[in-house]
Amino acid sequence: MKLSELISRYTWQEVEPAYAELYPKEKRKRKRAREAFEYIQYLKLIDSKMRIHIEYREDEESGYHDVLGRDGSLREDGQEESYSLFLVEWDEWLGMEIETETLGKYSELDILCHVFWEMTWCGYSMEKVKKFRKKLERSSKSKKEDFIPFDPTMLGQEDGTYQD
Q1: DSSP 95-141
Q2: Which of 29, 31, 35, 135 has the most Cβ atoms closer than 10 angstroms to its Cβ?
Q3: Using CA atoms, how far apart are residues 30 and 149, in angstroms rounded to an integer?
Q4: Which of 124, 123, 103, 128 is nearest to 3 (CA)?
């Protein structure tokens, strides 16, 4: 199932209670979240070879659901490579298949919430996502190295989000 098919099955009114439960810190941003969700529902998808994979991970403080992309590329150890998707254009997200394994482990609403949170991590508009991507690109070009360690404080907010 493509993400576009899943998103078309639900209204924000159906998604919001699950989103509020899974992401309670987003409460003050609900109006912008609703607007973004409704905007995404009207986008035309761009086909993508990337598949959406969600897995639960433990960290020092608690756990989280990591939303990743997979396209069949293999690492040197033979495992499938996973990619961050938070900077991907929203219309391309819509053209991604959701992995069968993910559909088996999560409810549709939970998948929508985790994916939507990842899509809007940089902001509730594609313009904000593009602005953040350009900021990262400028930072990358200003350094003489290929890898930039990620520091959430560079986003300008204590909780590590870029949203205004």
Answers
A1: TPEEPHHHHHHS-HHHHHHHHHHHHTTT-SSHHHHHHHHHHHHHHHH
A2: 29
A3: 31
A4: 103
CA–CA distance, 162 with 123 (Å, rounded to integer): 6
For residues 6 and 85, give the distance between their C-alpha atoms in angstroms, rounded to a whole number: 18
Which residues make beta-bridge pairs with 63? 58
Which amino acid is present at 29? K
pLDDT in tens, the chain (164 residues): 999 999 999 999 999 999 999 999 887 788 899 999 999 999 999 999 999 999 999 988 889 999 999 999 999 999 999 999 999 999 999 999 999 999 999 999 999 999 999 999 988 999 998 898 888 888 777 655 555 455 555 555 445 554 44
Residue by residue, DSSP assigns 40-103 as: HHTSPP---S-EEEEEEEE-SS-EEEEEEEE-S-B-TTSPBP-EE-TTS-HHHHHTPEEPHHHH
